UniProtKB/TrEMBL annotation:
Biased composition (Basic and acidic residues): 46-55
Transmembrane annotation, as ranges: none
Residue ranges of domain DUF6589 in the record: 466-886
Name the UniProt record assigns to this protein: DUF6589 domain-containing protein
Ranges of Basic residues composition bias in the record: 84-95
Length: 1066
């Protein structure tokens, strides 16, 4: 007989159900089990009190009453009484419903007990009923739904009862084992789903910048929670204690989410080796952070990263026939010129993920010994499906490909610099010695705000031919530029006061920002994308090396494939030596070589960072003084260095650039703040701040007074002129006019303010302000002995003023300052960026030991930028950006000490101090000296420059012997008549200009280029090439209280001397 189909729970009463149930009506079950009798629960006995009886003495039903209810007195209005009655009525109804529910629960319990007793009488266990209901083959879905799942939480309650500690241990163990096995299957299924989604796989994805920077742990965590919610919940539970559930912390929860996510990524990597995206990125991060091979190898063994051999491996060739293994066709076929030589066809290395075979090459395998003819070689080439590289090499190739894509547009700038490092040998032996390696690294970036129409070589050639010679008026600032320069330097004084004067002056920061001078050449905010290039073992310090480097750059970029290759100009930037060598190449080949070999296509940009280094070196030498003279020269840098107890400095062994900058700027800030106290008549900065009372106009007036009285080079010239006149008289007066210590101190502030203005203008990206400073550098470099940089200033100013077309001038001024971060006030000199790259290449990512080679540097150099971006992104994501530098030195005492010494020795007061011959000479006014050097005499540097320029103009007009001359009319510069002797290859044709056959000017240019570069400040550490070195001056901020007191000394200027601002051209 078939089992009864009527659901058990549809019976209306226990008696009728018992009457219908027979043994045949129930499903087959296991043999009856002995079970204890089910006892009927006894009714609760209630005590009887007085109120258990009614007024007639009859006992009341204990269920239907709770005793007499005391009524409250009649109070309130009728409406209030009605509301009270309604509440009482509702209360009675609720009590009645509770009583009825209690009765129904009791009946339900009694029915279930009877049902269980009936099952026991029939030798049917309750498990048989459960099997009958939940067996999918019996199709009792409606019963299951209505009996278990229709009411939410019932199934969960039953499962909780099964694992309750009151249940037997055997039962709990069985349920627990089932739950574990079920969760294991769920987790395995979720891992399979994630693997099939290919989200965490690197196969088929290009290892480029997106591959690295798209690795966002927060996005990955969201993906895992959406695709593997059960797995992530179990892992989170495994990492959360009961106390943590009670004491919840947002910070701790975020950190724990990252830990759980990384744990899931490691486990998914073990589920399938194809889930290796995180492993490859983490290996790159560890390498970018300086981890050695041992660390990466250990991390790979615990499933966090890939192995070091996979990270840095060379070519791994996959060889198989596509018919047998079509899955290998997933990778693109590479051209035969990228394949290894024929001898490399054995042994073959297969991908362990696809084939299941070990991916480690067999040691001692011999290459193919049989001769390979052309047909066999062709057959082998057809078998090659793809070539795989290590992660670093794939990333390097992707970065080079991105550079080539940019170069194809033609709108890019290139900068390069030499990279030098010493390869040391651990043991000295024959042929094994330390070697100084010299090479070159380069970087390109996209031109911002430029178009090909503004970069035509023909337009550049026309403008070059039309350019007049450089005049002194072109170098001297115009009256409008002088007014702007005065405004900029006064604002620089205000910036120093607000930034370094203490917290009381920070209230003026908003007004300071609003009044910052801005020129029309200010670069608009944008982000500069940098593309480092491979390193080459080419020494660019020679002219031949320069030619090799230029050809290596454009060959690497495949720039010749661009349709704009022969149409638009190419822009290159570098230090003074680089630009001088490039210009020498253009001078050598002018009139001899055409096309690309003639270098007439180039626009050369001098790096501003090296100009700052030369300026700092010149300032150090000029204002250093004599160290052992002590207080007889208290305004010199040597005395300041001694007072501050800094490391001794010897000019014959120059200190690093950052050391010099720190000393110079600390001294400048102390001098400026001291002068503000002098013009205000206050003794401390706290008193000065209180006297200002928040009045910005008063602060500006004081800054103008400081500029006119203590940063005025014309004042120094006037005092020295009066002294020279008096000394030349028959009876000179004593003391002589002026004060040499005061004069040197005034020049100290004036010269350093100009350098500070250049640094701030670069950070702001204001090319107009930068150009104003460079005009002054043309004189100061000439005055302090840096004649090479003075010569470069002449070229740069001449190019911007006359030689370059206006669109090209705009392009140069918009792109010689970079913004790698894209943030405002974060401009960086292009040559500083290259120096920064070189430092990290040669000191951080350089291989050590036997792995140190130019092949390695060639591979790792393009990855430097992206590796540092990855390291920064990881530190920001993980919240552990502790940096690699020590905490800034506390300089809260340095500036007050210098200010106290300035007051004590009355440095900024005219007292008639005169140096003895052995105490040190006066500091020259380098700007005035430079003007005299460029304007006096017949063979001054300016005349020599113009002579070379005119000669180059004449040579550029000639038809080159080899190649084609760039098209363009041959205009003659105004105001000059030039004659050129006829050349043999131009019979019957004459050109006005200097004699082309005279090579003296070319030789003079070569002499300038081939001379050893001036001694410069070395860059030895990351601080010397830090991109934020100028922003780091905020560490000089200090606080002063009333205890910091100085002697009041105010200077109004000497009597009879005009303290009005006198400009530099007077």
């Amino acid at each position: 007989m078939a089992p009864a189909q009527t659901p058990l729970h549809t019976s209306s009463s226990s008696s009728s159900l018992a009457a219908r149930l027979t043994l045949n009506d129930l499903p087959p079950s296991s043999p009856p089990r002995t079970s204890p009798d089910i006892e009927t629960p006894l009714p609760v006995k209630r005590g009887r009190d007085l109120w258990d009886f009614d007024i007639h003495g009859t006992p009341l039903d204990p269920i239907s009453t709770d005793g007499p209810e005391q009524s409250s007195p009649v109070r309130g209005t009728p409406a209030e009484r009605a509301a009270i009655n309604r509440r009482k009525g509702q209360k009675k109804r609720n009590r009645t419903l509770q009583l009825q529910q209690s009765l129904s629960e009791g009946e339900r319990t009694q029915f279930i007990d009877d049902l269980l007793r009936s099952l026991e009488e029939k030798n049917i266990v309750f498990g048989d009923v459960m099997l009958h209901v939940f067996d999918p083959q019996l199709k009792r879905g409606e019963v299951r739904w209505r009996g278990f799942f229709e009411k939410p939480g019932m199934a969960t309650t039953i499962l909780n009862f099964w694992v309750d500690p009151s249940n037997s241990s055997t039962a709990r163990a069985e349920v627990r084992n089932w739950a574990i096995n079920y969760c294991s299957e769920v987790l395995r299924e979720e891992a399979h789903i994630i693997t099939e989604s290919r989200y965490l796989q690197s196969t088929g994805r290009a290892v480029n910048a997106d591959f690295v920077l798209d690795f966002d742990i927060e996005h990955i965590s969201k993906f895992l929670h959406s695709s593997a919610g059960a797995s992530m919940k179990l892992l989170s539970s495994f990492a959360t204690s009961t106390r943590q559930l009670v004491n919840k912390s947002v910070t701790h929860a975020i950190r724990k989410s990252k830990v759980v996510t990384f744990a899931a990524l490691s486990l998914l990597g073990q589920f399938s080796q194809r889930n290796n995206w995180s492993h490859r990125v983490m290996a790159l991060y560890l390498y970018a952070s300086g981890a050695q091979r041992q660390v990466i190898s250990v991390m790979s063994h615990i499933g966090i990263t890939e192995s070091y051999s996979h990270l840095t491996s060379k070519v791994r060739t996959l060889l198989a026939r596509a018919k047998r293994q079509p899955r290998l066709l997933r990778a693109p076929f590479l051209p035969p010129d990228t394949l290894p030589p024929a001898s490399g066809f054995g042994p073959y290395i297969f991908d362990s993920v696809e084939t299941g075979k070990p991916s480690t090459p067999v040691e001692g395998s011999e290459p193919m010994s049989l001769p390979i003819d052309s047909e066999l070689l062709l057959q082998k080439l057809e078998e090659i499906v793809s070539i795989q590289y290590g992660t670093l090499r794939e990333l390097s190739q992707s970065m080079c490909l991105a550079s080539r894509k940019l170069a194809f547009t033609g709108l890019f700038v290139g900068a390069y610099d030499n990279i030098n490092f010493l390869t040391r040998t651990p043991e000295q032996a024959l042929g094994h010695t330390d070697v100084m390696e010299n090479g070159t690294c380069a970087t390109i970036w996209k031109l911002w705000n430029a178009s090909p129409d503004d970069m035509k070589i023909a337009d550049l050639n026309i403008s070059f031919n039309c350019a007049p010679p450089l005049s002194l008026d072109d170098l001297l600032p115009t009256p409008a530029e002088l007014a702007l320069m005065d405004k900029c330097l006064i604002h620089c004084l205000l910036r120093i006061l607000v930034m370094h004067g203490g917290p009381a002056f920070t209230v003026f920061q908003s007004r300071l920002d609003k009044t910052l001078p801005v020129t029309e050449d200010k670069i608009k905010p944008h982000k500069t994308e940098l593309h480092p290039m491979p390193a080459w073992n080419i020494d660019e310090s020679t002219i031949i090396g320069q030619d090799d480097v230029v050809h290596a750059i454009y060959n690497e970029l495949c720039a010749q494939d661009s349709p704009l290759w022969s149409i638009i100009a190419k822009i290159l930037a570098g230090d003074q030596l680089t630009i001088a060598r490039l210009r020498s190449l253009a001078n050598i080949w002018a009139g001899h070589e055409g096309d690309f070999a003639g270098f007439g296509w180039g626009v050369w940009i001098l790096g501003l960072f090296h100009a700052k280094i030369a300026d700092a070196h010149g300032f150090l030498v000029t204002h250093w003084g004599i160290p052992n003279k002590g207080t007889r020269n208290p305004g010199c840098l040597a005395f300041h260095n001694t007072v501050l107890h800094r490391n001794p400095i010897v000019l014959t062994s120059l200190p690093p650039f950052r050391t010099v900058c720190d000393l110079i700027f600390v001294s400048l800030y102390a001098c400026v703040l001291h002068c503000f106290l002098l013009v205000s008549g206050k003794q401390t900065l706290a008193e000065y701040a209180d006297s200002i009372n928040g009045e910005w106009d008063t602060l500006v007036k004081h800054a103008q007074a400081v500029y006119e009285q203590y940063a005025n080079g014309s004042l120094v010239d006037s005092l020295r002129f009066l002294r020279a006149v008096e000394m030349a008289s028959e009876k000179p007066i004593h003391p002589l006019p002026g004060d040499e210590i005061f004069e040197n101190a005034v020049l100290f502030i004036r010269d350093r303010l100009i350098t500070r203005e250049l640094a701030d203008a670069v950070k702001a990206g204001d090319s107009g302000r930068v150009l104003l400073v460079l005009k002054l550098f043309a004189f100061s470099f000439q005055g302090n002995g840096h004649t090479k940089y003075a010569h470069e200033m002449l070229h740069l100013i001449h190019n911007i003023t006359h030689v370059w077309p206006k669109p090209m001038r705009k392009i140069v001024l918009d792109n010689w300052i970079l913004f790698p971060s894209g943030n405002p006030n974060s401009g960086v000199e292009c040559d500083l960026m290259q120096e920064h790259m070189n430092f990290w290449i040669k000191t951080f990512y350089q291989a050590h030991g036997s792995g140190a080679s130019w092949k390695w540097l060639e591979m790792i150099a393009p990855c430097v930028g992206i590796l540092r971006d990855l390291a920064a992104a990881m530190r920001e994501t993980l919240g552990t950006d502790i940096g690699v530098r020590h905490a800034p030195v506390n300089l809260s005492v340095d500036i007050p000490i210098l200010m106290q010494n300035l007051t004590e020795f009355e440095v900024y007061k005219i007292r008639g101090h005169q140096f003895e011959p052995e105490d040190g000479a006066m500091v020259p006014n380098v700007i005035t000296a430079g003007i005299h050097a460029l304007s006096s005499g017949t063979d001054n540097p300016l005349d020599e420059y113009n002579k070379s320029f005119l000669h180059l103009q004449a040579r550029r007009r000639l038809q080159p012997i080899i190649g084609e001359r760039i098209a363009g009319p041959m205009f003659v510069s105004e105001g000059r008549t030039m004659t050129v002797d006829p050349m043999e290859h131009q019979e019957g044709r004459t050109i006005d200009g200097p004699a082309v056959g005279d090579e003296s000017d070319v030789l003079m240019e070569l002499v300038h280029a081939l001379e050893d570069d001036n001694a410069t400040l070395p860059r030895l550490s990351a601080e010397d090439v830090a991109l934020d070195m100028d922003l780091g001056d905020s560490r000089f901020v200090f606080e002063m209280d009333e205890r910091d007191s100085f002697d009041e000394e105010r200077i109004n200027g000497p009597q009879g001397v005009d303290l009005r601002v006198e400009h530099y051209d007077d």
